[in-house]
Amino acid sequence: MAITNVTSEVIGTVWKVEKNAGDSVAEGDLIMILESMKMEIPVEAPVAGSLVEIKVAPDDSVEEDQILCLIES
Predict the structure, then answer these.
(1) Is domain 3-72 annotated with CATH 3.40.190.10?
(2) Domain ranges (residues) in the chain
(3) N or C: which end of the chain has fewer CB within 10 A?
(4) Cβ–Cβ contacts within 10 Å for residue 69, how many?
(5) What is residue 48's predicted lDDT score, i.e. its pLDDT?
(6) What pLDDT does residue 1 have?
(7) pLDDT tier at 22, thresholds 50, 70, 90
(8) Edge-to-edge strand list for the sheet holding 67-72
């Protein structure tokens, strides 16, 4: 089993978290939505697997390349 880090592509704020730790995800599934400069940025699963940990919560500030969650595949 491999662990994949899902990172932020932008500096912004976590607007909404759609999945929980323990949920199964398919490649391309929406995990959360970030807000940056009044735009909604979807964060999608890069691989299929199980969400091991979500490291952010709604209203948290995030930096570019910050790890948002971990997927075990």
Answers:
(1) no
(2) 3-72
(3) N
(4) 22
(5) 98
(6) 81
(7) very high
(8) 3-7, 67-72, 49-54, 24-25
